Amino acid sequence: MPSSDRLTYPIHQRTLGNGLRVVVSPDHSVPLAAVNLWYDVGSRDERPGEYGWAHLFEHLMFSGSAHVATGEHLNTLQALGGAVNATTWFDRTNYFETLPVGALELALWMEADRLATLPDHLTETSMETQREVVKEEKRQRYDNVPYGDAMVNVVELLFGVDHPYGHTTIGSMADIDAATVERAATFFRNHYRPDNAVLTLVGDITPKEGFKRAEKAFGHLPSWNRRVRPAAEPLPPLTEVVSRQISGRVPAAATYFAWRLPVRDTAAFDACDLALAVLGGGQTSRLHQELVRNRQVATGAGASALGLIGGTSFGIAQVRALPGQDAAEATAAALAEIDRLAAGGPTDAELARAKAQHAREWLTELARFDSRADLIGTYATLHGDPERINRRLEEVDGLTTERVAEACRDFLRSDQRAQLDYRQEA
Amino acid sequence: MRRSDRRPEVKTPPRWRFPDPTRLWLDNGMQLMACHREGQHVAAVSLVFDAPLNAEPVDVEGVATITQRCLDEGTATHPGPSFAEALEDIGALLSGSAGYSGSELTLEVPADRLDEGLALLAEVVREPELRPDDVARHRTLRLAEIDQLLANSAHRASVAFRAATIPGRYRAARMVGGTAQSVAAITHADVVSFHERHYRPDGATLIISGDLSGREFGRAAAVFGDWTNPPEGYFTHEVPQQRSPRCWLIDRPGAVQADVRLGSFGIDRGDPRWADLQVATHALGGAFLSRLNRVLREEKGFTYGAHLVNTPMRDGGLISVQGSFRTEVVAEAASLARDILDLTGKPITTVEVADAVSFTNGVAPLRYSTAQGVTDRIAALVRDGVNVEFVNANFQALTLVTPDSATQSILELLPLDGLSLVVVGDAAALQGPLQAEGWPVVLHD
């Protein structure tokens, strides 16, 4: 690993006349180019009655535009050797393809075509099909899987249903059913625009080529007044424990703990992230050692932080009981570990390990063109500073044991938690 | 405000080749391979043991898995949790799997800590503590894991499909990690014995990729070179055959969806039809607008995705349509899938062949752009007894595939009267409709 001050992925930025931000990061090691478009729209932008629309819209983006037939975007680029997909999250919707560099211009042309013309080509048929596909996705990934609804419940408990983060990207079946062509077109026009997007190109191109191609494909698209997001109000930590019990057909009882955390990639958030790694980040973590290895009251335990930009992030810890047993003992043991960490913070050795693991994970993310492009898009969109990908290791490495201990006291106390319990149905 | 309506031309990608690893054999029979990948700061290491699961004693199947899971619970040099701490201190991640044709340990480690990582890897295979309490704990955890896996509809369908297509006398017919009964029978002595016999340098391959210094072989020789082989442990790999078709319905009361597997026993990479089948698989169920996904997802909206999945083993393989469908449409979806697999009068087209070849060759540079991608690929081939040269030879073989040869591979390997069907879902709601569609399903536990 290069020491943290040696990360030097090149970052070249330019903003087109219509507001589209373009970032080019050349890497000539493989004859490929990664195209990544971050649209600054996620499930947090859905209003009541629209839950699930950002994600439904992601599906509709593949249903054809002025010069591209239904499914053709994906199919054509795949047939050229492209790895193509899109995802929706709380804070964004991203579209990406990594392909042989000779197909880059076509990929940009297709991306621009759907950005320019998609709402005029939405049809009732494509809406109907994608509504059904999304409902199947919900059944497959959430409803038909043990604990599949954990995240839905956790964010409801932590944020409340009316908060922008109080629902997950999959949304509600009723809202998805209520989406019409007209309302989807409006949603599109509000959010899909050059000035609300970041285009990242990583790969076997020069900055000059990258900007020229971006200008050629997107430069002619109109822009209008850039949407200004109201500043998000941070939520303070919970002041009392909120909890919910679910009885269901699960293979073992389980408990999820969750906390409100500071905005992503602030020192306070990073400190919480490291603290949760110490609590449940791997084989040496306190939860694993105590619950799984020493006391043998759980089959698995873990913890992680999930960074969000809209005022408040969250962290989760989970434990799964032995089959046929209730989770009381595992839950009590986990709470004892949570209290111990909140009271005393991590040891120097634990923190060093958490940082070493974080560094490897970060370098692994940067290793591939596609995930590197996505990180650049993340930092350009959410933080206005893609150069930060080169500085993140230093930022995290600089956090002291005292700083992390302080974060544990401020944000990760057991009396600040939400708790979700799964019980096995008789 | 002018935009170009003209679709840009695509330039043909340059010819790309999988890297040729440098190799060295240690005197104890262990093979070393290394691939330098510029700029890859995280090195990927894999250590593959030629230890097939059919070498497990039949009454303690799963012992390979338990052994592998106990390895990092402590070594002679780093007892107990101090081993995991030593690994995590250098930012390393060690994982492992006991696959049907071999056990494997993988290590991801920042390239500048690779030396220390290799030393810890050597410790874990050469001098693991394998304490009785670790064995007991991992046995308990594995039993719980079996419950969890079987509670997962998709996993249960895949397990059942294996049993439906491979006769029970072969190890490959059953779960990698053993059944509840066989795992419960595993003792500390079984684990120690499995380790002694099968974790050995002859037949083992160490693969290292990353931004390398050139000193890696010397470092590997220093920590593995004086490892000696045990006197016994001869075994052969099983060669599974095909089971006559089955049509099983597995009950999951109240499930909102059913997982479907429809297919047959298949072929391995050594079969001359391999490239033909790869192309046909992509056209029928690999591409986004493959025949299956186009109809079942994009036209019907029956599923989040329907795929034809081709899983090679060391000998033979499995080919199946895979999808998850809402209960009301399962019977229709299964019949549509069967109709799509019937290529009589609907052969694979020239365009489909060209797209599949272009896709497979085009994604290769991305897939193998990282140290991890290269190491994983080589390890998978080594485990299945295939030469690394296969990757480039297969690129060549793909260019020789014709619409006829691709079509023929499906007609031969997925004959309509040879298909097995597995459906995992709400049996009360599914049995009638499936039988009405002509599927002779029987309830299977």
Question: What do these coordinates show?
Answer:
- The complex is a heterodimer of chains A (426) and B (445).
- With 426 residues, chain A is an alpha+beta fold.
- Chain A folds into 2 domains: 9-218, 2-Layer Sandwich (Cytochrome Bc1 Complex, Chain A, domain 1), CATH 3.30.830; 242-424, Metalloenzyme, LuxS/M16 peptidase-like (Cytochrome Bc1 Complex, Chain A, domain 1, 2-Layer Sandwich), CATH 3.30.830.
- In chain A, 42% of the residues lie in helices and 19% in strands.
- Chain A contains 15 helices and 11 strands.
- Chain A has helices at 53-60, 72-79, 104-117, 124-143, 150-159, 173-178, 181-191, 207-218, 267-280, 286-294, 328-344, 348-367, 369-383, 392-397, 401-411; strands spanning 12-15, 21-26, 32-39, 83-88, 93-100, 197-203, 242-248, 254-261, 298-306, 313-321, 418-424.
- In chain A, the strands form 2 sheets. In chain A, strands 1-2-6-3-5-4 form a 6-stranded mixed β-sheet, sandwiched between helices. A 5-stranded mixed β-sheet of chain A has the order 7-11-8-10-9, sandwiched between helices.
- In chain A, helix 3 runs parallel beside helix 8 (207-218), helix 9 packs across helix 15 and helix 10 (286-294) runs antiparallel to helix 11 (328-344).
- Chain A is globular and about 60 Å long.
- In chain B, the strands form 2 sheets. Chain B has a 6-stranded mixed β-sheet, sandwiched between helices. In chain B, strands 9-10-8-11-7-12 form a 6-stranded mixed β-sheet, sandwiched between helices.
- The longest helix of chain B has 19 residues, at 132-150.
- Chain B starts with 21 loop residues before the first strand and ends with a strand.
- Helix content of chain B is 41%, strand content 19%.
- The radius of gyration of chain B is 24 Å and the shape is globular.
- Chain B has helices at residues 63-70, 82-89, 114-126, 132-150, 153-165, 180-184, 188-198, 216-224, 274-285, 291-299, 330-341, 350-367, 371-383, 390-399, 403-413, 427-436, and strands spanning 22-25, 31-36, 42-49, 93-99, 102-110, 205-210, 247-251, 257-266, 303-312, 317-326, 420-425, 442-443.
- By secondary structure, chain B is of the alpha+beta class.
- Chain B has 2 domains: 22-224, Cytochrome Bc1 Complex, Chain A, domain 1 (2-Layer Sandwich), CATH 3.30.830.10; 247-443, Cytochrome Bc1 Complex, Chain A, domain 1 (2-Layer Sandwich).
- Classes of the chains: A alpha+beta (426), B alpha+beta (445).
- At the A-B interface, helix 2, strand 5, helix 3, helix 4 and helix 10 of A face helix 2, strand 5, helix 4, helix 10 and strand 10 of B.
